[in-house]
């Protein structure tokens, strides 16, 4: 049984898919009663189940040490608005023994023995007691509410248990970029409400970037009058709006205060980000005097000039801005960006070059460090601290800075080595929620690589490269949603859900209590129902773990499943993506495939609210082993012929006159690129197959490359062949056209010539080895 290699980098993915093919029955038979975590996300530190249930009714009394506590007031409002329960909350006498009281007791008595933000929730048939202080009490309430059924009823039966819980990390964050696309105050509040209910405690508000300045600064009104609006722009292949229309918006200072209070009432700290020195186009459109002039007679910078010039005038401006920002945000941290600063404008600035000489700075990286250190010193003087993206490490790290490691883990690891606090939020580990949620082309247009739910869930922010002493500098983790490709609230919600659930468990739960199978196949069910009840959009999980795959064999049995309560699964056998008018799944589907024939199964999940998963595709092929060819020359390498020309398809190489031919010891066209900006090349020879079995072949680029084994073309959709041990003919076609010069921060890239193979019984995709190639 063979699976598409790039989708099976982990053994567990294969196991899940294998089970989906062979087992009968619906989704996991476990219920919340069977679930050791009682359906709670993030999974608590400790749960001891009891016997019986507590019945919560409109007559249930609620008592609190302090009925005016903001966590208690939040609960009262929640019960009124969401459960239609108008329950008065009475004063609780903490001198009484809580165990003898009836109803729900909210108390801080004993909370001083709990870890920071910790709580203890005890449910007996007689009463519910939540012990916690401040955020701890709030999180205990959130856990209790997750035990309620989603539907409103006259009574609610809650399972008896004792839950003792506290977070793994003190910093648990979610970032929302409102510069690329603007979101209103109610829309922002809905995100904050959601992350608070899953025990995240930080909302990183990316208010400023090149595409828009979103915060009112009274001393500099043009920042919003000019910088908050732009002509509609195109990001990559995603054209959201006509370019002729103005787009924008900003938040007044009163609106900012309202959001900060709203978040604080839910124990969410709001960290503002004011980008510098780069990503400053919006500010520089409004106040171009803070931009560097180029050296007289020199060409304008090749990179876009989006850098503040480090003049005293600029620093005065930024300090004025930061004073107003700090007046609005009580957060200990102020995020100052510091990322992706192309230094060309500084290299061409006479002022910057003179400043570097005056300050003894050896290069522009040290000039950036000087810039960041100046800002940090000012912010520290106001009793605050800075956070910066990991580029602030360039040229030397500011003395008290916290590093947000985004390019990968390396920046965070280096900062921890230097004993600086670190927030791990790498784009390489599933923390970037603007990335695709699968490799399927059916996903809505997003950014760059793809980050699956499983990848987000399995990330551990504490690198094994750190010593135990250095590990304490990893203070938390964060998910980021950049919004170049997020023009609507529905897209925003689709991108973050259900990945926020996974993030919350990474940030809160100890690794020993994590279990992806339990999380994805058991606990997520109720939380999807909660999202539906909130009319919150989300990505619907597919009916099969593997979205697009090819299997080889004569007989298959498929059991489809959906974790979304009440969802229906539809399938087709005719190569068309299913609709709700197609066959509805009601039990295992069996395929017996004649020799040399193919069958295709496509599936789609449709929820009761009408949300749809992307369609899965499984190609089944019953083909015998292709016999080896008679080859005895035993000469390693490949023959190749190439032609200098501009080709638009590898097919054109079949009739192009070759310019030259030679022997190559490996499949590699890099040498030809050095002197030829446009060419095509065809490699011919034999590949040595070491054992009978079905082999998966993939290419780095299917537009520029074609692969043939024994005359059969391997494509992105049909990539597997059963091959007998021995030699088989191989042909590879490749065209290359040099990319245009880079523009700004965008660097065009052309995929190299690469052929990968996954051997039978192996789950690792490897580049085709030169030692296996012959001519």
Automatic annotation (TrEMBL):
Any one GO molecular function term: beta-N-acetylhexosaminidase activity
Domain of life: Bacteria
InterPro entries: Beta_hexosaminidase_sua/sub, GH, GH29D-like_dom, Glyco_hydro_20_cat, Hex-like_dom2, HEX_bac_N
Catalytic-site annotation from UniProt: 340
One Gene Ontology term from the biological process aspect of the record: carbohydrate metabolic process
EC numbers, comma separated: 3.2.1.52
Signal peptide positions on this chain: 1-29
Ranges for domain GH29D-like beta-sandwich: 559-610
Pfam families membership: CHB_HEX_C_1, Glyco_hydro_20, Glyco_hydro_20b
Protein name: beta-N-acetylhexosaminidase
Provenance organism: Mucilaginibacter gossypiicola
